[in-house]
Design brief:
The complex is a heterodimer.
Chain A: H1 16-24, E1 30-31, H2 32-42, H3 51-64, E2 67-69, E3 85-88, H4 90-112, H5 115-119
Antiparallel strand pairs in A: 1-3, 2-3
Helix pairs in contact in A: 1-2
Chain B: H1 3-21, H2 26-77, H3 81-91, H4 96-115, E1 120-128, H5 145-153, H6 156-165, H7 168-173, H8 188-197, E2 199-203, E3 209-216, H9 219-249, E4 259-263, E5 270-274, H10 277-284, E6 286-290, H11 303-332
Helix pairs in contact in B: 1-2, 4-11, 6-8, 6-9, 9-10
The chains are: A mainly alpha, B alpha+beta.
Chain lengths: 120, 339
């Protein structure tokens, strides 16, 4: 019996590591170290991924179909051609969009309670 | 950091990490090992350029923490479904890791305790008095008297004759394996160190008596050695006293049956006397109160105590592991996709 594709909602809520990793791929495909640097930069250095965490997460995202490996390889004169690049899938983009909206709702809820103003 | 040093450290780090990757499950390593190594090398070069040696050290600490967390996790994920569900639903929430580590710690301590050879202890108790002052016979208070006697008992002057009398050079040097022939004979110094290591000298609480305890794997040997040490010590004391009195009287120490001016016990006045055997016993200034006997039970290792300490150590290690896991979770947050 064929398995039905999982709905984007079934992946929510995303863990911070997964959310930031997916977010780093919104602007285009990246290789592992570029993802790591992007996550570190977007969180002001609060989230530092090690290679084990990074590729463990990538493995699960690949298996879930949220990202995919790009066929494109860098020019050997510019970069190591063994580098593997990853990009968001349509499902990954939908999940990221849903998670972003969920965060938006949470922030709005916090604003309604005056919490965001109080914190800033 | 100079460029060539930097390059060398980066290459060394990369090599070490390459070996670390081997601990990950094979499918994971095959799929991502090369990429992980590449990312780590990029990190090393970047950190070494920006922060130098300390940055590299900090990176290694972070990486080891990452390894300690992700390597077991990947192994668990690689498990078939049933064991994985068992792990995720039952074992992990119930603190399986700390319990496992605590149990391993406890088992190691118990195994070491039971694998250690049993050693018997025999104790001889000595009463030692200060030898009277040769000139006036007065006894002076000496707070270090017993401590000095401890050192004398453990000295080569006392223990070398014991080593010779009981052939301890052969006894301690005898190989445990029967195939090793001829038997190894220790030097005097080696045998002395071995004997000193098996010897404990202590004061009997609230008295001026001295306990000399010898530990040995043979209960009879422990007894013989302890009694021989006591005899050797008392003989040495006597020889020392006679030599001291001979010097004060201007008589050669090897002169037979010398006549000494010895303080009389009644009035303390000196009078010339010929030393008899009983007087020699007095001059010895010490005697054996309790000779050593064969021990009924081994004294070391103290299995009950070791098991108790092993239990305490296991609890401490388990609690520490629990704390470290909690800390890691706090630092890293949840990192798996929801099922």
């Amino acid at each position: 019996m064929p398995r039905s594709a999982p709905s984007p909602e079934s992946f929510l809520p995303l863990t911070p590591a997964v959310f930031h990793l997916l977010l780093s791929l919104v602007d285009g495909e990246r290789h592992g170290y570029a993802i790591m640097q992007s996550v570190e930069a977007s969180t002001d250095g609060e989230m530092k991924m090690g290679p084990g965490t990074l590729y463990g997460t990538i493995k699960r995202l690949l298996a879930a179909g949220l990202i995919e490996e790009s066929e494109a390889r860098p020019d050997p004169e510019l970069d190591d051609e063994r580098r593997r690049y990853y990009r968001l899938t349509d499902l990954g983009q939908r999940v990221l969009g849903l998670e972003s909206r969920r965060y938006q709702r949470l922030v709005k809820l916090a604003q309604n309670h005056g919490l965001v103003r109080a914190l800033t | 950091m100079k460029p060539h040093q930097q390059l060398r450290r980066v290459k060394a780090s990369e090599r070490c990490y390459h070996w670390l990757i081997w601990f990950y499950p094979t499918p994971f390593r095959a799929a991502f090992g090369q990429s992980m190594r590449q990312v780590f090398r990029d990190q090393c070069i970047d950190v070494a350029e920006r922060k130098g040696g300390w940055g590299l050290t900090a990176l290694w600490l972070r990486t080891l923490l990452d390894f300690a967390w992700t390597c077991p996790k990947e192994h668990v994920v690689a498990l078939p479904t049933l064991p994985r569900r068992l792990w995720e639903d039952v074992l992990r929430p119930s603190g399986f890791y700390p319990a496992l580590i605590a149990a391993v710690c406890f088992l190691i301590i118990v195994a070491v305790t039971f694998l250690q050879p049993q050693r018997y202890a025999s104790t001889v108790t000595l009463e030692v008095k200060k030898t009277p002052n040769a000139s006036d016979g007065a006894e002076e208070f000496d707070p270090y008297f017993l401590q000095t006697e401890f050192e004398k008992i453990g000295s080569k002057a006392v223990l070398y004759p014991v080593i010779k009398a009981l052939s301890l050079q052969e006894y301690y040097g005898f190989p445990s394996s029967a195939e090793m022939t001829p038997p190894y004979r220790m030097s005097n110094e080696e045998a002395y160190r071995a004997l000193r290591g098996n010897l404990r000298i202590s004061q009997v609480r609230h008295t001026e008596l001295i306990n000399v305890t010898v530990f040995d794997e043979e209960r009879s040997s422990a007894k013989f050695i302890a009694n021989e040490i006591a005899a050797s010590y008392l003989k040495w004391r006597l020889d020392d006293t006679i030599a001291s009195l001979s010097r004060s009287q201007g008589i050669a120490p090897d002169q037979a049956s010398p006549t000494f001016d010895v303080p009389a016990p009644s009035d303390g006045r000196s009078q010339p006397i010929q030393l008899s055997d009983s007087m020699l016993a007095d001059l010895r200034g010490g005697k054996i109160i309790n000779p050593a006997e064969e021990a009924l039970r081994p004294a070391r290792p103290n299995r009950y105590l070791n098991i108790l300490l092993g239990g305490i150590a296991a609890v401490v290690v388990g609690a520490f592991t629990l704390f470290v896991l909690w800390l890691i979770r706090r630092l890293r947050g949840r990192e798996t996709l929801p099922a």
